[in-house]
Write a structure and sequence with these properties.
Blueprint: H1 2-8, H2 30-51, H3 55-71, H4 77-82, H5 84-100, H6 106-139, H7 141-162
Amino acid sequence: MRGRRGASSSPPAARPSSAASPASPIALTGRGGAVVIFGAGVVCGLLSRWLGVPLLAGAGFAIGCALAAFATRPADLLTLVVSPPLVFFAATFAVEFATTLGNGSLVRGVTVGVLTALAATAPWLFFGTVLTVVICLSRGLMTNVRELQDKLAGVRLFEKEENENPVRWDESPTTTQERRPHHGEVD
């Protein structure tokens, strides 16, 4: 009996702790995921311009979206899902600014470059955004949406409590003989 008891119990230090082992080795916040998308978009956009491979800019953005969607912690998935369009614009602007700097009119060059680049890479923007949404849905995005709905419902309930008593002290009952002046009339 003594042998069985000793074999079944192990010292606390030898047991693996579930809290110590994270679900994934990297856990980014929502802002960190946006930075990953921005970084991938800028680096691949610059490489695309320098190497003359237009496909590289859009593909790099989509890869950045996928990496960010997999590496962002589940609590921040809602923040990440809404950020790709704005991050795409910011990365495109940064690339165009960097490549136009020193080449004539900066304002005209950046404006024309950004509009042209956005038109040329719009399908990649849509693909990267859809890819982010699909990956985040599989990682628990709907839980975040439900939590947001619950918070908003709580806010609405609080507003309802505030307006429970509809008594208005500024209005007094009027008799049929007494006529209140219209807002355009003078007393």
